[in-house]
Amino acid sequence: MKFFICFLILVGLTSCQSREDKNGVMAKGCEAAAQGLMANSNDQIDSISSQTFSNSTYGSGYKSVSLKANLMRDGYLEDENIECIFFENEGPFGIGYSAEFIHISFNGNDIGKDAEGNIKGGINDFMSITDSVGKATR
Asked: For residue 15, what are the contacts with CB-CB under 8 A and spacing of at least 6?
């Protein structure tokens, strides 16, 4: 019994990620999704000037990430908003956190799953962006 209690305390102390760390994972993933959309253009993200995180209207477990990006476009900096939706997964005791990419709205593009689970913007774009996000958040 003592071993089990010690194990629970150890797991609780070593496996929890802070909300700040989780938000960092999603922000990094959202930026990677936007970069994936710009892969065939000369545009690039110069910097991220602000980040906001909130519960999504998609439902429980879904988080909305809003980034204000400074894009280098044709030699000029322009402000652009990037909006992403992620679904957060976490095992018992906070073990095994992951944030699954769901949707991005950026630069006139609307790609990913809508609230009903239908793919918007084409399955190939969605799969390519999901792969970029996965690589960035590992």
From this structure: 93, 94, 95
